[in-house]
Every structure is written in structure tokens, then in C-alpha cells.
Amino acid sequence: MGTPADAATRDAMNTRSPTECPAWRALGEQAAAWRGGALKAALATDPARARTLVAEAPGLRFDYSRQRLDAAVIAQLVELAAARDLPAWRMALLAGEAVNDTEQRPAWHSALRAGAAAPAEVHAAHARMRGLTTRLREGAWRGASGRPIEHIVHLGTGGSDLGPRLVVDALAESATPKLRIDFASNVDPLDLERALRDANPETTLFVVVSKTFTTQETMENARAAKAWLARGLPAGAGPEPHFIAVSANVDAARAFGAAEVLPMWDWVGGRYSVWSAVGFTAMAAIGETAFAEFLGGAGEMDAHFAAAPLGRNVPVLMALVGVWNVNFLDAATQAVLPYATPLRLLPAYLQQLEMESNGKRVDRAGRTIDYATAPVVWGAEGTVGQHSFHQLLHQGTQIVPADFIVFDEAPGDPARRAILAAHAEAQAEALAQGQDDPALPAYRRYPGSRPSSTLHFERLDARNLGRLLALYEHKVFTQGVIWNINSFDQWGVELGKQLAKALLEKGPRPSHNPGARGERP
After folding, report:
1. What mean pLDDT is predicted for residues 349-357?
2. What is the mean pLDDT of residues 148-177?
3. 215-230 tens-digit pLDDT
4. How confident is the model at residue 486, as a pLDDT?
5. What are the residue ranges spanned by the domains of the chain?
6. How would you classify the pairing of strands 452-459 and 402-409?
7. What is the 3-state secondary structure (H, E, C) of 347-392?
8. CATH number, span 7-97+308-490
9. 440-to-396, 435, 436, 437 alpha-carbon distances in Å
10. Do residues 171 and 290 touch, judged by C-beta distance below 8 A?
11. Is the dihedral angle over the CA atoms 290, 295, 301, 307 positive or is it negative?
12. 191 closest CA partner among 155, 239, 219, 244
């Protein structure tokens, strides 16, 4: 991991602008033919699309036959990926080389779900997580007053919050209820107050997740949690049994008073960290067996990404379709539409994964980029979105590519699930085919040729959730390679932090509330 040969290896890989690749120019020449109503025409004249523009990975099928492209475009996109040295970059990523060049770090999240091949430190951390999970779920972890813990409040923000929160919410129905789980990520006091509503200090455990143990929002919430415990615990009882920390700064976590400190490593970025001890709250919620399935599914997707040919590699194909839409068909946004309530938090999770990773304007060589990178990612669950923003998807002036995510099997009444599945299929078909009956008034017509892909999964469970999240991780990395950007740093968030710190050091600002100055509102 991170050997001196890494730099020489990376220097040999392509870090020129992608616009210099002949395949990029060829794709630009093909793009004009796919604007307007070309997709409807292709669907009408080439029924084989539904069989040929499909790829499979463990547990899923990726159908991109409703995208504005054909096999010739895909072949050119695969040629572009090869010209960008994607296979070499992929090997460097999975081998733990320092692909995060601004911080000289690996992005080795795949090592966290490598099974028997994982590093010893990963095995040790997962073993500790399992031990603590068993104690919590069996009532053996006791608070300062001797009562068993019944409630976990997870304190983290960004990547230290979104992943565990998603896993807990997505798998709640399949887990044996053992513990109440809440999350607080916002420094707004109301966020923590809501998590502690009707909570008992004697039976509440806080999991504080911060790599540096200095993240302002997280530490302010942790200090507020400690004050809440002090008011509610018996006199003389210390708060230590009510805190577990996940951090690389062990000394600071111990000084704060955490009874246990689980590790974080520099080679795992926050938004890629749910597979590590950052996911401890998720393991406690769903159990160690389900969490092992979650890791196993991600490991299967890693193996597919590593070995499948580029033209049949699902994360690569998803990435290339996205590049085609963003750079050649001028799509500025991407909708994510999971037709499953358990995945209602997926759009928010992917917003961070995609936009923090690839929302960059400077390439690996420090040059200002003159082509688009990450689109704006947004969306909502299933039929909720249909009654919200699907109007724009169908009849708006902007073309918004969409990812539909559906499951053949999931919890709930089969009849109502059939209705949900029918809606997903109908929405994708309506976007693609439209309705241009001249007998209808203009406002009743649909232009069609609106692009979408569909991810079909066998069932909604921990293994397939792991596959899904790893799939999008590798999609993001592949697009970063195509765009010649570092997907693993996030310097864009630093300036606002510095300005906030400076404002706080100046002291409170005058109130803008007229009533606060005795004035009439």
C-alpha cells in the first residue's frame, strides 16, 4: 500500500485532458444524431436493444436500452475508457496505491470488504465491532447506573452519518428489533433534541464518529450529549459507559471520555467508510450476520469491477453512460429514483458520493477544466416523486437522465408491490416513448426520448444493498478517471469552514430580529 513505485506507475497512466483523445472527438460527432426524438425512433426500429443494451453483475441486471445511444456509441465510450487507462487506474485503486494524489493517500475502501484477503487491521476492527454488537444486542453493555443500553444515538456528519443512516433505514424491516437507533448530524440544537426526545440517559449510548475528533458539528453535539447525561445520570455516575468513539485520534477520544475507541484510517475517505467501524451503529442495528452479508455483497461487486470486460462491466457502463449524457448530450443533472421506501435516503447518500467526489474544476495536473464534470444528483423514492417532480421529467424543458432502481422481491403485500413495480416500468416507458397523438392538445402531449436506465435487483436485502453502494462507488471512480480528476479529496468544503471559524472568533453578530432590539416587528 502506497509504495515508492506508485508515483512512477501513475506517471505512466494517462493524465492528459480527455478532450485530446480521438474517441472524445468521435463521440462529439455522434452526439448530434441522438438529440431530439432519436431514442423513440431507435426503440421503434431496433427491438433487439432490450436484449443487447443490458449487462449483468452479481444479483442485478443493468438495462440501459432507454438511453439515447446505441451499440456504436457504447463501443466508442469503451474505447475512450481504454484510452484513459481505466484498467491501470482500476488496478491501482484496488491494490491500495495512492490514487488520492493531493493527499498522497490510497482510497482503499475495497480492502474493508475483501473477506479473508482483508488486512489484519481490518479483521481486528471488525472483530471488535462484532464483540461490542453482541454485548449491546444481548443487553450486556450497561450504563453508569447498571441498566442495559436500549438506545443508540449516532453523532457524525457527512460520510460519518449518511452511510450508517442509510443502512439502518434500508434494512430496518429485515432486522430483529433490539435497540432504538437515532441519528444527529446537524449542529442545529433541534436535531439532537429530536433524537433525545423521550430518551432515558441511563439507557442511552452515544456513538461519536469523527476521524480527527475535531469536527465542529459532531463535537458540539457530543459535548451537548455529555451535558444531557450529566443532568440525567445518578449523582457521581461518570459518562464513560455511555460513549463509544470511532476516530483516528485515539488520545482525544479517550480524553473526551469514550469507553471504547474503534479505529479509522487515512486510507478510507469519509464517504466511502460505511464498511469500516463508521458502520458500527449499522451493525448494532441489523446484527453482525446481516452486516457480514452487506460487506459480502460489496466484495462481489469489487470482484466484478476488477474482472469484467469494460463493455460488460456494470459500474463502468453506468459511468460511461453518465459521461455521454453529461459531456455530449449536455445533461446537467441526474435523477435517482428508487422504487423502494427502504431506499428513500439513497439520493442524499449519492449526492455526497458523486458531487463531493467529482464536483471538481481542476484536473490531476492542476489545469482548469473546460468540460463538465459531476452532474447535480437529486431524486426521491418511487411514487412520491411522481407526484412531485416527474412533471418536469416528462414535459419540462430540461432533459434529465434517470436511474430507476427496482426489486423483484421486497417486504410487504405482494399486490401493492405489483402496483409499485408497474409504476416504475410505466414511468420509464412513458419517458422514453412519450405521447404525440395530434388529436391531443399540446399540453397533453409528451415529447418522449427522455433517457433512463433501470437497475433490477433480485431482492432487497443486506447483500444487495452492499452491491448497490459499491456499484455507485466504482461508477464515481470510473468517471473521475475519464474526467482526469481526483475523486477522493474534497478541498471545496474548507473555505466555508475557515470563514465560519473567523466569524465565531469575532463574537456574536447583531440580531436581525427587530423584536430583539425592542422595536416593533
Report:
1. 98
2. 92
3. 999 999 999 999 999 9
4. 97
5. 7-97+308-490, 109-286
6. parallel
7. HHHHHHHHHHHHCCCECCCCCECCCCCCCEEEECCHHHHHCCCHHH
8. 3.40.50.10490
9. 18, 9, 8, 6
10. yes
11. negative
12. 155
- For 7-11, 116-120, 365-369, which range has the lowest pLDDT when averaged over its residues? 7-11
Q: DSSP label at 67?
A: S
The catalytic site residues sit at 356, 387, 497
pLDDT at 240: 96
Spatial separation of the C-alpha atoms in residues 239 and 144, rounded to whole Å: 7
pTM: 0.94
> For residue 420, what are the contacts with CB-CB under 8 A and spacing of at least 6?
339, 340, 382, 383
Asked whether the beta carbons of 168 and 113 are under 8 A apart, the reply is: no
Query: Half-sphere exposure (CA, 13 Å, Cβ side) for 295?
Result: 29
**Architecture in CATH of 109-286:** 3-Layer(aba) Sandwich (3.40)
Locate 170 and state its grid cell: 434500508
Give CA torsion, residues 385, 38, 474, 61, to 10 deg: 70
Residues forming beta bridges with residue 100, ordered by sequence position: 105
Closest CA to 455 of 436, 433, 470: 470
pLDDT band at 507 (very low <50, low <70, confident <90, very high): confident
What is the total residue count of the chain? 521
Give the torsion sign (CA, 163, 131, 94, 156): positive
Is 247's pLDDT higher than 70?
yes
CA 373 to chain centre: 17
Is the confidence at residue 170, as pLDDT, over 90? yes
Residue 514 has pLDDT above 80, yes or no: no
Judge whether residue 377 has pLDDT over 50.
yes
